[in-house]
Each structure stands twice: as C-alpha cells, then as structure tokens.
Specification:
This protein is α+β, with helices and mostly antiparallel strands.
C-alpha cells in the first residue's frame, strides 16, 4: 500500500480481518500501541494490545521489529510476561497482537503522585529481577527495562507487577544489555518516591544499589533477586515491618561510590550519553535530561530564591546578569508555566506550588483595564501561560474565567477591519490610528494565536478570526519558496501590503530565522486545531515552510540569525547564531512528523535536539537560563549570545 497511514486514519480500522483498533494507548517515535478487540464469529472477542510499526521505517527497523516479535514468541508462557497472540503484516503495516494489561505503568503511577512503601518497592524489584533472569536464560536479555515497561496487575486483593516486553529497544542487540544496572536504577527511582522519606534506608539495601549500579558485582538478574531475598531473611519480621513504610536516603556508599552514583544522576552524565548515542534512539535520555534539568537546576532557583518577588524571567547572560520583566509584560506568564510544568515531569509538587504562589503577582485588571491594555498591544497574552496553565493544573474555574476575559479583550480590540490581528499600534473600531503600525507580523501566529486556539477549544468561539489571520499570514508573509518575511506593512501609496519589510533580516529578500521557525510552528498548530478545508491548506503550507528550513539549514543545524548566512560556503564567526529559532524548529518538526510520518522531519528534530543538548546547554544552576546563544537582536551585540525565558520554555517542551 503506497499511501502512508497516519494516526487519524487508523482508529476504527480492522487489521488483518481480525483486530479492530479502538484507541491509542501509547506512542513512541517508532510505533503505536492500540487497544483493539478481536473480530469474527468464532473469535473470543477479547481486548488486546496491538502494536503497529509506524510507516516509513527503514529496513533495519522492520527487521528489528520482526526480531523482537520472535524473541517474545520464543518465551514460554510466564505469569509476569505478556503473551503474544499473533503477528503479521496487513495494509503495509507490521503488527503484533499482545496480551492487554489494563491500568497505568509505574511511570504513570509516579506521575500521578504515587508514594510506595518499602515493602511494595522490594516486591516490585524482586519480581522484575525474576522475570528479567528468565528472559536472560531464554533469549539473552531484555535491553529495555524501565518504569514505562512495568505494570502492576490486580489479582484479587494482591497487586503483582507484570513486566511488559517492549518490542522496540535498540537497533542492534549487544551482549551487555545493562539490564542489571537498569533494575538497580529503577530500585533507586522507586525509593525516590517513597513514603516517609526522612527515614534512612538500611545499609544492606544501600549496598545492593551500589553493587548493581556502580560496582557491577552482580553477574545476572538472579544475583540481584537473591541479594534482596537474602536481606529479607537476615532481618526479623518485626524489624522489616518497622521499616516497611519508609525508604531511602543514600548514605554509606563511601565517597567514591557516592560521587560515581551522583554523576550518573546528573545532567553531565546524560549529556555524555547523548554524545555517544545514535540520535534516533535517545528518547529515554531526553526524558531523563528533562527531569534532571528540573531537579538539579530549576529546583535550585526555587530553593535559593533566585527569582525575586515582582520579577519574571526574560533575558540572562553567561556572566549572570539578568534583565527581568514586570508582571504586565507578555513574557511574565512564561516564568509561571516554565517552572510549574516541573510538577508533571518530576512528580514533585514544589514546582506547582511555587508557580501558583508566583501567579498571585500577576494582577488581574478590572474589565476596563483589560480593554485599555488590549487596545495598545498583546501583552494580555501573559494570561494564557499563567492563568490558562493554572486552570489546566487545578481545574479552578476562576483561572479559566480570567483567561477567557483576557482573550476576549484581545479578540475584540486587536482584530482589525482587514481581518488579521495586529500585535502593536493602538486600534480604534478596528482601525489603526497610527499607519506606521498597520502591518501583519509573522510572529503573531505563535505569539497570540495559541491563546485564541485554547479559547476556541474551551468556548467554540474565534475560529473565523483565527483562520482569517492565518490565511492573511500565508498571503502576505510567506513567499513562494516557503521563506517568511517578518512583516507585511501597509503601503499608503499603493494601498497594499508590501512583503519586503523586515526589522532584523539581513536584507529585504532574506529570511530572519526566528520568524521562519515561528510561522512553521504556528502552521503545524493550526493544522492540529483547524477543520477542513483549512486543515489541508495549512498542512500544505506547513510542509513548504518546513522544507525551506531543511533546504537551507546550517552545517550544524543551528541557524545563523538569517538564512542568508547558512548558504555561504564557509563558516562565519562574527555573525550570531540563534538557538531560539532552532528550539522552535524542534517542536515544529516533531509535530509535522507526527502528522505525516516522513522520516526526514523526525531526523531534523533529533539532529537539532542533540546539538542543543550537548553544545549549548548550561548546567550551572546559578545561571537563570538553560540554552545559550539566543540572538534577540542581531543589530545589538548586548542582546546576542544570551538566554531567553521564552526559548528555554520551548526547549523544555521540545524535550517532552
């Protein structure tokens, strides 16, 4: 079958005349896992998990899928391994029908705030080690032990972990599967989400962590299991019950062991691993990096009160100097959301609590005040990232009502009679009283429209205004080759909008990289939210804008501030690069890949993510920034090679 299948095409589809796809359970860069029901007159009509390899994969990926299916099929029935029912190829799709285990995996349990007793933790890691040892004996190793691959099946009053064999994993099997190290790491991570964390772990368990993650003393998962069982035998039941509700503080490992374990749990360790990894196989590392940025860097900002009351992150330099924003600037909301999102990512409520407390500093004007602000500019956008985020987090209707009042003011007063939103200049009755500000700014598609899309999903309003603005952006800001002009300004003489206008681009025909990236991302989000026929129109232009970026990308995938310099034959040292543009491209390329499954877009996102994570990431917790070399103004050296709160937030979103 030549037509590539997308996610939207598959729900309701019947695969191989046997399995009807009901809903998506899980998605990785390589595959989908659906809940499906068996079809046919004599079938058991049971629910199963159907794993489907995404279209467009390489031959090596397809062979890997077949190999992993065979490995699972070669495992005899085991109470803690999911059973494979069948596998095949239909309609151009490789699939495997697997036993469905309902409920959340351990990663989801942790994200939902689960705290484990020590007894639970010991039961989990013992069972994981037991089934890992079985797999080692039968097929040589698992190669992908992680929290996401462990579920706990309810069996009467007992809850037992069920180990799910991931058919993905690495492209090449290796003798050293690192399964024992992974089990030890899971042990430590579960202990990080323990009940009564103030109590110390018994020294015997500290030694098991040390031997499995640092010293490498265990030759098989069975050795790990035996060590846990030996520990349990060596203490009385009374003593065990006394500590069963508590867990770990990692002490007693010795200085060398502690420093080694400390390194393996640091940002440095993940960055070192990313430098070695095939970029296509680094999903887990990026998730780990994201958690460590929050746990090591952003939590430090909170604990040390690095963001004073009344100040919001804006621009930071390597020397530690900061320009902060006040609570009325649009970027104020980015600080709230950047830090607040850490609660979902790490399970630590410190980030949520800090953000909700900081939210109180963004005052809500009276209705007339909202309207007056909306007449001047789009700074009310701050209520999207602040109050909009707070509503999504708490479901408190007050936050939603406040955000909707702000967006309604913007929709009423920033939309002009030419059917687009103006980001600057005072409007009266839809007419800009200062003609110099009568222009369509490309950035508005991502500066203002996400707020309006959110409000549209909440209320069903603003659709026509949003799509009219996007159509005008396509008409006036995008050239035939897919390049973007920063803004189209109204020409008083010709009475038309002139596309050859720029503030930051090298010349009137060149392309400012950040505007290009913002339009690219804005169009992908427009496609996600729009209805037909606009949906297909926006997708066509998304590909055109994205393909221009691919055609004109720099050698290291981090663009100069203008694409003009990317095409020169030699690298230039005195022209600033702009990681902000690259960060936005990551999110846009990921979205486009998820829409049409073309490998080149996934590769583009991976290349950019790797270079930023390994070459531009600041690990110093005292620096109030994450990704360096942002170029906010190519004409002003003091605004080059800096950090930006807005780009940092986008980078963290890209890692997700």
């Amino acid at each position: 079958m030549n037509k590539k299948r997308g996610l939207d095409d598959l729900i309701g589809e019947i695969i191989d005349n046997k399995y009807r796809l009901k809903e998506l359970i899980r998605q990785t860069s390589k595959s989908w896992v659906f809940k499906a029901t068996e079809q046919g007159e004599i079938s058991p009509h049971r629910s199963i998990a159907l794993k489907i390899l995404k279209p467009g994969q390489s031959i090596e990926r397809k062979n890997q899928f077949k190999r992993e299916v065979n490995r699972l099929a070669n495992l005899e029935r085991h109470p803690k391994i999911t059973t494979i029912y069948s596998a095949g190829k239909d309609k151009g799709l490789f699939y495997a029908a697997i036993e469905l285990v309902p409920g959340p995996d351990l990663a989801q349990e942790i994200e939902a705030g689960k705290k484990f007793s020590l007894e639970e933790i010991l039961n989990i890691v013992t069972d994981v080690a037991d089934v890992a040892n079985y797999i080692h004996e039968k097929v040589g190793g698992h190669h992908d032990i992680k929290l996401k691959n462990i579920k706990r099946r309810e069996e009467g009053k007992k809850t037992k972990p069920v180990y799910l064999l991931d058919l993905g994993g690495r492209l090449r099997l290796v003798k050293d599967s690192k399964d024992i190290f992974k089990i030890g790491s899971i042990f430590k991570e579960l202990l990080d989400h323990r009940k009564n964390p103030k109590q110390k772990i018994p020294k015997g368990l500290e030694n098991i962590i040390k031997k499995s993650t640092i010293l490498g003393n265990y030759s098989s998962p069975k050795d790990f299991k035996n060590a846990i069982e030996s520990y349990r035998k060596n203490i009385t039941r009374r003593k065990f019950l006394k500590v069963a509700g508590s867990a770990v503080a990692l002490t007693g490992l010795g200085y060398v062991g502690f420093k080694s374990l400390e390194h393996m749990n640091s940002i440095d360790y993940v960055v070192d691993e990313l430098k070695k990894e095939e970029i296509i196989d680094s999903t887990d590392l990026y998730e780990s990096l994201l958690k460590r940025i929050y746990n090591e860097k952003i939590s430090y900002w909170i604990k040390k009160d690095k963001i004073p009351k009344g100040d919001f992150l804006w621009v930071t330099w390597e020397d530690g100097n900061v320009i902060s924003a006040n609570s009325e600037r649009w970027i104020a909301g980015k600080t709230i959301r950047l830090i607040g999102e850490g609660a979902k990512i790490t399970g630590n409520e410190i980030f949520r609590d800090w953000a909700l407390n900081k939210l109180k500093e963004i005052k809500v004007p009276e209705k007339q005040g909202l309207l007056e602000q909306a007449k001047k500019d789009i700074n009310l956008f701050r209520f999207f990232d602040s109050y909009g985020w707070a509503y999504e987090t708490t479901k408190n209707p007050y936050y939603k009502e406040t955000a909707l009042k702000a967006v309604d003011a913007l929709a009423s007063f920033r939309y002009n009679k030419n059917n687009f939103f103006q980001s600057s200049g005072i409007l009266m009755d839809g007419v800009n009283i200062d003609k110099d500000y009568n222009k369509i700014q490309a950035d508005t598609i991502i500066a203002l429209l996400p707020f309006l899309w959110w409000a549209y999903k909440e209320t069903g309003r603003y659709y026509d205004k949003i799509t009219s603005h996007i159509n005008n952006t396509i008409k006036y800001n995008i050239r035939d080759d897919g390049s973007v002009s920063e803004f189209a300004k109204f020409n008083k003489n010709t009475k038309k909008y002139d596309i050859k206008n720029n503030s930051y681009a090298y010349n009137s025909d060149s392309c400012f990289a950040r505007s290009q990236a913002k339009v690219f991302l804005g169009l992908t989000e427009a496609h996600e939210n729009a209805k037909q026929p606009e949906k297909q129109i926006f997708l066509d232009w998304t590909k055109r804008v994205g393909d221009f970026i691919l055609k004109n990308q720099s050698r290291d995938f981090v663009s100069y501030y203008d694409y003009y310099f990317n095409n020169l034959s030699e690298e230039i040292t005195d022209i600033p690069k702009d990681t902000y543009a690259t960060i936005i491209e990551i999110k846009a390329f990921n979205k486009l890949y998820n829409i049409i499954n073309e490998e080149k877009y996934k590769k583009a996102a991976s290349q950019r993510k790797q270079i930023l994570s390994t070459n531009y990431l600041s690990k110093d917790p005292n620096i109030l920034g994450i990704i360096s070399n942002v170029c906010l103004d190519p004409n002003e050296k003091s605004y080059q090679n800096c950090f930006s709160a807005s780009s940092d937030f986008s980078f963290l979103q890209g890692l997700k």
